[in-house]
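Quick check before the chapter quiz. The format below is the same one you will see on the exam, so make sure you can read both the input and the output lines.
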Amino acid sequence: MQSFRNNFSALRSTSWLVGLLILLAGCQNSDNPSEQAPAAKLMQGPVDRLTLALMGDPEDEVNQMGLIALQGDSLPGVQKLLASNDPAVRFAGVEILEEIVAPGAIEMLIASLEDPDESVRLEVVEALGTWQNAKATDPLLALYPNETDSQVKYEILTSLGAIGSIEAIPVLQAATKADDRYLRMWGMDALCTMRAPRATQRAIKLIQDPDRYVRLQVLQSCKNLIVQNTPTEELLETVLVADSFTEASLGRAILTEQMAGTYGAPNRAIVREVTRKRLGADDNVIAALLLAEVGDPAAIPRLLQSAADPDPQLRHNIAYRLGQLGDPATIPDLIVLLGDQSDLVSGTAAGALQQWDNSSFPAVQTALQNYAGPKLPPPTGPRLPAE
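Here is the expected output.
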């Protein structure tokens, strides 16, 4: 669907769209004023032809774009598409209707929420979320409890979040407590999208959810709210007990923004204090990465222990942080990472080694001269001394 929208945007921006409309009209104005038809009647023929063609081939993008180009004049034809017995034709009608900005279009979309085909209903719900018109709130809320297709149900939550009406908040809050993991994650996504009251507090609870897929989605969906409103200590504890590197990375990205924000210095002090304790207690590699991020060389031994970890993302992070710390004692380890099978890891190691590529470090010069892989830029940002 996104491809179709992109194609139409390109079409709409070109000069030959005018030519297309003339071609679609398929007629010429009479020189006799008494024979000139109103615009709507003039367009009836092209609309009928396009509609008939789409009845036979609902995926024909040229004919779809033709109806969209006619905007409000095409609504009678779209109505015929929506009344078809073929769900593929009705689906095409919804796609076209989503791009028509004219009186009556939103009402036609809302009426299609009752379509018997789940793929059509899903497209309608997505379209209403795109429109972000408050008129759709009550119909979506009415559909939600009785919707039998799970994908449509999830999309209703997303569209309600995009619309942002406060009437939807109780339903979205209830979804965050549902047994269905996807209701929890998309209900929370919607609350964060609309920045609902107490959304941050709910998000913090859900990044401790027993289901890691919920935790991952909430960390992505609610990142901005969490950055702005969550105490660093609370978030840090969640990150340090994450059971996957991907999850920990999302949490670390939020912490990084907090450490760069208005209260950066005290947040860095909190991170340093807590992660040093955690590093000493259970040898946590995430704690080591966070320590490296605040420029604490105490992280280096633990980072080197994990430099051969099976996860290439972790090895990449380690190479980057070793380069950022800039300790020449880690050069041999970075040279080993230069031969990593992952281009991301080897390229990161090459970038880190470039800071020492001079006559004082012949081993680095030789290694880089013999290296034929990608070279990512050297690590950036201040190397903050440990306090």
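If your answer matched, good. The mean pLDDT is 85.
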